[in-house]
Amino acid sequence: MTKPPGKVLPLVAALLCGAVLAQAATPSSPPVTSAAAPVAQTPNHGLLSVPVTSKRGEPSSTATRKPPAPKPPAPKPPADDWNLAAHGKVLYLTFDDGPQHEWTPKVLQVLRKHHAQATFFVLGIQVAQYPELVAAERAAGHHVGNHTFDHKTLTLLPDAKIRQEIGTGVKSKCLRPPTGATNAKIQAIAAAYHQRQVLWDVDTLDWEKPGTAHIEHAIMSGARPGAIILMHDGGGNRSQTVAALDQALTKLTKLGYTYRPLPC
Ligand code: NI
Predict the structure, then answer these.
(1) Which of 1, 44, 170, 218 is 20 to 30 A from 225, comparing alpha carbons?
(2) 76 CA distance to ligand 1 centroid (A)?
(3) pLDDT tens-digit readout, 199-210
(4) Domains of the chain (ranges, CATH numbers)
């Protein structure tokens, strides 16, 4: 904090101090926003922004003018930071094959309950049917990725059809090819659409409906800093996914994990 200017001007000192405190109190998150704006490729950049934020927050916590706000969301890394393992205990929850009228709202509800943000890899054909659900995903701070138009296996298609499947999917910076089937050609076509191919680290196999406990165990055993976890909010009954997600997030949050959307 600033040093008091001396005993000559106690009133001025108090005013100055108050002004500094007020300044320190308000921008506890804006520095992160401004840090994200410039091109920042070094991994250190994102890491440095965290201590700066918390240092600035310290003086404001000594002032008694406000009760502490509910725990703020973790500072976001720079927009294109794919160094996912560099941000501590952060998990990247992903949901494929939606949106779907029954299960997507339930997944959104569980995510909201746990203050979790995720990424939905949606199908164009579903988006056309439920545009309001994609809007709800975005409004809640989740990110949306392209899972193609109608879930064809891209590796089995001629080039023109691959382009059609990718190009008529939702606009996004990320593509997750259906079933993960891909090759260099598909990756190159995706790149031509400015879409980065994103697969996963942990496959919960929830689409096989193996039971809630099995899905929860898959999430828990795969959790590690930066892991991308694959689940589904469409393509069938997802009651097991919803229940397993709720249980796993309860445990993972106690272990110190937070949940961020992919930079899609
Ligand atoms: Ni899929």
Answers:
(1) 170
(2) 27
(3) 999 999 999 999
(4) 84-144+199-259 (3.20.20.370)
